[in-house]
Amino acid sequence: MKVVNPFAEHLTFLDDKTRTRRDHRKYLGLIRAVALLHQHQRPIRTLDRPGRDPVPYIEATLDDIAAANRLAHAVLGTTLDELPPQTRTLLRLVREHIAARAAAEGVHPRDLRFTRREVREATCWGDTQLKLHLHRLEELEYLLVRREGTRFVYELAWAGEGETGTPFVMGLIEVDRLRHQYDRERSGVEAEQSPLGRGTVGPVSPPGRSAETAQTPGMVRLAASIAAPLPESTSAVAVGERRSYVHAAR
Q1: Alpha helix ranges (H) inside the chain
Q2: Whole-number pLDDT of residue 57
């Protein structure tokens, strides 16, 4: 049974290291496995393909992703113990500073960018000491490096996970935030396609597709992605997986 993840374009996972790229595929596999575990409780939908056999599938849900996130933290995660004490102290200071900025500016902490100079002024640490520990946090992906014009800035990937000593995976989107982004996108699509006060509709169906398929979230992107028959071993959850990475510019 194929599994389609309508939230795939909004999922996040760090991909800056070879190990985390491998873990990303494992994470997608966890979502698929959880969805398949509940397949008998889900409606079976069909993707119609002109000239080919229809593809039956089920959809992953937000509950599936929440369960997969919990499993990922347990089986793929690391702990704060990997950080030396001073580096851990700096990480917490950076998070406190970014949390205060985010609250003042009314934005999510992951949407903020900051420089080493800003961290130096906020912490009063010496530049040499700061370079050492910021580099360590960058190497371990607690901080991501972005490029803005001619300068490099940081993004805080750590959201306070693991403070109790439990393992965690950084960069996984919170399910509540995922729900908000997905609902906002769907509302925009439905508003654009229903200018005359029509009821809720799905994406526009290309010729030959059934009404049921047209009303299935994410099926326009899935249909466009399938250029050949899907082998049984291929999971449709992989559609859009590149977009479920958080890319760190170098």
Answers
A1: 18-37, 62-76, 85-105, 116-123, 127-139, 175-193, 211-214, 219-225
A2: 92
